[in-house]
Design goal:
single chain; 120 residues; mainly alpha; 6 helices; MHB_sf
Length: 120
């Protein structure tokens, strides 16, 4: 006579061991997640890191949307007093592109908000 319950016990033991391993892995990941949420250090190195982190995403958005890249280049040629109106007009007709660009610039915005808050 063979013990038919043996495979079930073995499966439960493996399942329990896997659950413990996953639990330990998740617990080990919690300090890493909270460490990444640490306050931004306001230094030239932190600014450079934010720009370096955002650069590939921004380049990707501009590569996917050449009309956005052309408009941003065109804006740089305009006098300062004309830029705002032109940008606003372009932004209303190209909302999705600007949304993508804003998301790509998140690391830079986070650094600026943390290190250079607006004075009121």
């Amino acid at each position: 006579m063979t013990d038919t319950r043996h495979p079930a016990r073995w499966t439960r033991r493996i399942g329990a061991a896997a659950a413990v391993t996953v639990g330990i892995g998740l617990a080990a990941g919690v300090p890493a997640a909270t460490a990444s949420a640490a306050p931004i250090q306001c230094s030239p190195q932190a600014r450079a890191a934010a720009v370096a982190q955002a650069a590939p995403a921004i380049a990707g958005v501009l590569a996917r949307h050449p009309d956005l890249a052309a408009e941003l280049a065109h804006l740089r040629t305009l006098p300062k007093n004309q830029r705002r109106a032109e940008l606003k007009e372009f932004r209303t007709t190209h909302r999705e592109e600007f949304k993508e660009l804003r998301q790509a610039r998140t690391p830079i915005r986070d650094y600026r908000q943390a290190c250079h808050p607006k004075r009121r």
